[in-house]
Design goal:
OB fold (Dihydrolipoamide Acetyltransferase, E2P), 2 domains, transport, Rossmann fold, about 25% helix, alpha+beta, about 30% strand, binds adenosine-5'-triphosphate, six-stranded mixed beta sheet
Length: about 350
């Protein structure tokens, strides 16, 4: 039996006031227990797609299925949305007149007292909320409210959970902990999680699959590793990190097979290593450097006229000549070279 829990076929939605589709012919499959990130630039259609997945909005064309059930129909209910698909909005929708503990406890109200208490306390602890248990949402910061919304959403061990920008107000070390806790909880409950994020690190760091949307269209769906290392085009390559993109004919002669053929080559900054002159494939001058904490980001102008991003553990002053070896690279479909981000 197929373990696909949620799938869309040729899903499209154009808002009345617009000419362009917010979501255009999106066909997507999500398997049971999977963690999927929907990512893309601002206005790409991520939130609209999430709302269509939850049955909160009627598509113009196409279908959404939850198991064997057509979700589209739920958009026309008095209270729209499929009852088993839980969506946490960007504005959290907490109960303002109930405490943090009561908000988390709400979905557990049909369980026995001991289970309610045990699960609420566990979630308060996991999401670092013990100190706020008796406070009201208005007394909390945005990040604290966001953690309450996550705890509340997970309290009922949902089969499927949709989150819109769940980490947007949580930062630093706490964000890493929250992401880890969320991953552990969804694994424990076998919850299928689909979340929207514009943050590429969040999209790559704890997901099984990433879907990149641009202009309402699904550009690529892949594992985080493949998304980063095997992008289908320059837009995808650049969306997930800095990338040196140029024509293969500009690379040192004989460096790649068929050097003379017209190929678009992508080299990530970490695929260029600062080395000794005799081992180098390229040499050039440092134009500028930025301190990034655990490394420096260098901008280098190669002697062959290439402008390159390079990571280095050591700082280099502007105008210093450095030598670089290429440790890896890949080719992209031939398309006009687009500008760096
Ligand atoms: N209710 C609406 N009425 C009209 N147009 C809308 C509506 N909601 C969204 N849009 C438009 O649809 C497109 C997709 O919007 P959507 O909010 O889905 O994008 P997004 O990728 O979630 O963006 P962001 O990351 O900025 O939140 C945008 O052009 C937006 O202006």
């Amino acid at each position: 039996m197929s373990d696909i829990i949620l799938h869309t076929d040729q899903l499209s939605k154009t808002f009345v006031q617009s000419t362009a589709a917010a979501v255009h012919q999106v066909s997507l499959q999500v398997t049971q227990g999977e963690v999927l990130a929907l990512t893309g630039p601002s206005g790409a259609g991520k939130t609209t797609l999430l709302r269509l997945l939850a049955g909160l909005m009627l598509p113009d064309q196409g279908t959404v299925y939850y198991k064997d059930e057509l979700v589209n129909e739920y958009a026309e209910e008095l209270v729209p949305g499929h009852p088993d698909i839980h969506l946490v909005f960007q504005d959290f929708k907490l109960f303002p007149n109930h405490t943090v503990a009561e908000n988390i406890n709400y979905q557990l109200r049909y369980y026995d007292q001991a289970t309610q208490q045990q699960r609420t306390e566990e979630l308060l602890q996991i999401f670092h909320l013990q100190a706020f248990a008796k406070k009201y949402p208005r007394e909390l910061s945005g990040g604290q409210q966001q953690r309450v919304a996550l705890a509340k959403a997970l309290s009922a061990e949902p089969e499927i959970l949709l989150l819109d920008e769940p980490f947007s107000q949580i930062d630093g070390i706490l964000k890493q902990e929250i992401k880890q806790a969320l991953k552990q909880l969804v694994n424990r409950y076998n919850t299928t999680l689909v979340f929207v994020t514009h943050d590429t690190q969040d999209a790559l760091s704890f997901t099984d699959k990433v879907a990149l949307i641009q202009g309402g269209q699904l550009i690529q769906t892949a594992s985080p590793e493949d998304m980063y290392h095997k992008p289908t085009n320059q837009f995808v390559a650049r969306f997930f990190g800095l990338c040196n993109v140029f024509n293969s004919q500009l690379l040192p002669k004989g460096f790649i097979k068929n050097n003379d053929a017209d190929q678009t080559v992508c080299i990530r900054p970490e695929q260029l290593k600062v080395t000794k002159a005799k081992k180098a494939h390229l040499s050039g001058q440092v134009i500028q450097q930025q301190f990034m904490g655990n490394h420096y980001l260098l901008q280098v102008q190669s002697n062959d006229g290439l402008s390159l991003w390079v990571y280095s553990l050591a700082p280099f002053k502007p105008s210093t000549t450095i030598h670089l070896s290429i440790t890896d690279w890949w080719t992209l479909p031939n398309e006009p070279l687009v500008k760096k981000k």
